[in-house]
Amino acid sequence: MNYIVSARKYRPSSFKTVVGQSSITVTLKNAIKSQHLAHAYLFCGPRGVGKTTCARIFAKTINCSAITQDFEACNTCESCQSFNENRSYNIHELDAASNNSVEDIRSLIEKVRVAPQLGSYSVYIIDEVHMLSQAAFNAFLKTLEEPPKHAIFILATTEKHKILPTILSRCQIFDFNRITIPGAVDHLKYVAQSENVEIEEEGLTVIAQKADGAMRDALSIFDQIVAFSGNRVTYQQVIENLNVLDYDYYFQLVDAFLAEDYKKAMLIFNEILKKGFDAHHFIGGLNAHFRDLLMCKDAATLELMEVGQSIKDRYAEQANKCNVDFLYDCMKITSECELQYRIAKDKRLHVEFALLSLSRIEIEKKK
After folding, report:
1. In whole angstroms, what is the distance from residue 314 CA to residue 251 CA?
2. 279-316 residue pLDDT tens
3. Three-state SS for 5?
4. Rounded to an integer, what distance in angstroms lies between the CA atom of residue 115 and that of residue 242?
5. What is the mean pLDDT of the chain?
6. Distance CA 340, CA 258 (A)
7. Chain segment 172-214, per-residue pLDDT in tens
8. In the chain, at which residue ranges do the beta strands (DSSP E only) sit?
9. What DSSP designation does 121 have?
10. Domains of the chain by range and CATH?
């Protein structure tokens, strides 16, 4: 049996299965419901958030001959089946990164004139549209403004600022959000369940953080972890595979700073370097740890924490030991260290001096 990567296998096939873009999917469904379809849409947003997926679902739904009551495609009519089997002549996908010349756009314009054989609309999805040349954009303008009744254009881009204002003014613009960490974790749980994979929630949180708002990246990392660990995955295996620094080191360091124990802090830093972690990456992580402790000091800011529940409890426990002034001083030192890191001649000594300063905060206050 052929293996299919999770990003393709679990690609949403209806509006309700799209992760983290509810405002956009509701707007598109309402447009279908009221039959107020624009002739050109522009989907913008970072990579892996569902731009092309939503374009395909929209194209499939407007051509469905038996739309359901909640305005989703039926998946049983001939149009839906041809779409699901990748043999639909109603949907034309063009990659503007490799088809960016005037000739490519002219051949597209020739295609646009032909009415669809099945269904009501021919949908043209143009990916990475910002890659079109200036001449290609100009050749496209007239058709984009006044296409035939059966043609709908959906342009997708990660770099909206590179698109000509004349193109923007002819499109309905939808800005896609980055996928939130809780949203990514929920979807990864569903995928893990479907694949009979047991994985600790802390591990899923690390995957979601590493993916940086892109669902496709999160699923690719998930596949990589499962290939490494098998069907039972622990938090420890995830951080080993992704080369992520364990939260535990940061908790130990803060305890050392509170105890004014600079020797322990130096030994922990030495252990981190021995494991092959970059000192700049480490100091950035330590700064983020202080920020998370500060968020834990108040129930109102607790929701700004992007970690799993068990780690949240540990943060809350350590935050109780730290006062706000201490955390503020810590963030000041680590931010300064991070800022000056690139120009420091002896980088290790530079970070060690910051750790020494952090260990002396309580002593200086007592003085």
Report:
1. 9
2. 898 999 899 899 988 888 877 777 777 766 677 778 88
3. coil
4. 50
5. 86
6. 25
7. 999 998 888 888 888 999 999 988 889 888 888 889 888 888 8
8. 40-44, 91-95, 122-127, 151-157, 172-175, 198-199, 232-233
9. -
10. 6-175 (3.40.50.300), 181-242 (1.10.8.60), 247-366 (1.20.272.10)
